[in-house]
UniProtKB/TrEMBL annotation:
Record-linked PANTHER family: TRANSMEMBRANE PROTEIN WITH METALLOPHOSPHOESTERASE DOMAIN, TRANSMEMBRANE PROTEIN WITH METALLOPHOSPHOESTERASE DOMAIN-RELATED
Native organism taxonomy: Bacteria, Pseudomonadati, Campylobacterota, Epsilonproteobacteria, Campylobacterales
Organism: Helicobacter japonicus
Residues that span the membrane, as ranges: 6-22, 34-53, 65-93, 139-158
GO MF annotation terms: hydrolase activity
Domain Calcineurin-like phosphoesterase: start-end pairs: 185-347
Keywords: Membrane, Transmembrane, Transmembrane helix
Name of the protein in its database record: Metallophosphoesterase
Classification via InterPro entries: Calcineurin-like_PHP, Metallo-depent_PP-like, Metallophosphoesterase_sf
Keyword field contains Transmembrane helix: yes
Record has Transmembrane helix as a keyword: yes
Length: 415
């Protein structure tokens, strides 16, 4: 399955390079076409290396450089698409103005004008949509377009890398739940993906930002790690210093299964982290439950078990469920819970991949009111709210485009 996915990705990247070269780089007035070809070849080699060394152990900066080839490839493509859209709009505006001028000409002169226009529009040129301009204006427009592509490429690349590598901002979310005594605050992180590119320095800053919130509870909702545990024990050490009044709680994500979930869970338990594997715990204000990830079904190990997770919930307190993948709520009845917290989606990570995430998960990012399941018409089920976080880190290359990361600060109040 992974090879099919990689094949599709490489096919898409190749198509993007062809588009960029044919539409812009081949006739760029700033860069010779052979230099453009060498640049695209360099990106292709880097992308192949990223796949080849994905399971090898290298320094964080080495993965960052190789992964940046994908970032540059994508942002250059997006810059070209944006400029192409702008150029098309400019063409239609000029075409509209040309037609408007035609209507003002007397009827006996219209045929002559149309013949002149037809000759003008059918003249051969690399960029036919610019043929309505004079020769000098076409040169100026081409220079402007090349410059605009370069500017957008730089802006998109810097912003995408910055969104991925910077410590996320705090996203505040207020939720109203029944039966809660007093206010309760939860700091939520998910999809940190410590391993290939992100390491100890990044996690230290995340922990520092969480501790500044003075939250009652800290929850880590899966995909904390993205490498073999023996390689990243030092990187994870800052988690030991997470502060909260009622503890730090964790559920596994799919990437923990990929890298050996048992030793990962064993090590995390030494960092003062409470692991919720299909179980729940009664805290001062709430019941907090957690289920293992759906990847457990595929690996036939540590499978998710909602019945075990909700066994013994105190009905006098609101209940919160931690589940890494949001599609878990579509496969299971979670109406016994007031709030479900998920991650996994990265909010798409790269636009427009959010559409494909929606096809798989249905819930991509943000707060949702889940559909009510009424089995007994005499009983009105309680409202269940789902929050899907965009996550802290990233998977694969260091890019987040129109899908910023976040640390979530949830405030629970009485409904």
């Amino acid at each position: 399955m992974i090879y099919i996915f990689v094949g599709v990705v490489f096919l898409a990247l190749s198509a993007m390079k062809c588009y960029v070269y044919m539409r812009f780089l081949r006739h760029n007035r700033f860069i010779h076409k052979y230099i453009s070809l060498v640049f695209l070849l360099f990106l292709a080699v880097g992308e192949i290396l990223l796949f080849v060394v994905r399971d090898s152990h290298f320094a964080h900066w080495q993965y960052l450089i190789v992964g940046s080839c994908v970032v540059l490839d994508y942002t250059l493509f997006i810059a070209c698409v944006c400029v192409d859209i702008f150029r098309s709009c400019l063409f239609f505006v000029q075409r509209y103005k040309s037609k408007k001028r035609t209507h003002k000409i007397p009827k006996n002169d219209t045929n002559n004008l149309r013949e002149s226009e037809n000759k003008h529009f059918t003249s051969s040129h690399t960029h036919t949509d610019c043929d309505i301009f004079s020769s000098n204006r076409r040169v100026f427009l081409q220079i402007m377009i090349d410059g605009l592509v370069a500017i957008l490429f730089i802006v998109f690349s810097v912003k995408s890398l910055s969104n991925a590598l910077s410590v996320p901002p705090i996203k505040k979310v207020s939720l109203r739940v029944p039966n809660i005594k007093g206010a309760l605050s939860i700091a939520m992180i998910t999809d940190v993906h410590i391993g290939k590119t992100l390491g100890r320095e990044f996690l230290e800053k995340v922990v520092e930002k969480i501790n500044a919130l003075n939250a009652d509870i800290v929850v880590i909702v899966g995909d904390l790690v993205d490498d073999k545990i023996h390689r990243i024990t030092d990187d994870l050490e800052p988690l030991r210093y997470l502060k909260s009044t009622q503890g730090v709680y964790y559920v596994a994500g799919n990437h923990e299964y990929y890298h050996g979930i048992e030793p990962i869970l064993k090590y995390l338990s030494t960092l003062n982290i409470h692991i919720l594997h299909n179980t729940n715990i009664e805290l001062e204000n709430v019941n907090l439950a957690g289920v293992s990830d759906l990847a457990g079904l595929r690996f036939n190990y540590l499978k998710p078990d909602l019945e075990s997770a909700k066994k013994g919930l105190n009905p006098q307190k609101p209940s919160i469920l931690l589940s890494h993948q949001p599609k878990f709520v579509r496969l299971n009845d979670v109406s016994d819970f007031d709030v479900v917290l998920c991650g996994h989606t990265h909010a798409g990570q790269v636009f427009p991949l959010s559409f494909f995430v929606w096809l798989d998960q249905h819930y991509v990012y943000g707060l949702y009111d889940l559909p009510q399941r009424i089995e007994n018409r005499n009983h009105s089920p309680k409202k269940t709210q789902l929050y899907v976080s965009s996550g802290v880190g990233f998977w694969g290359p260091a890019i987040r485009f129109l899908a910023p990361s976040e640390i979530v600060y949830i405030e629970l109040e009485s409904r």
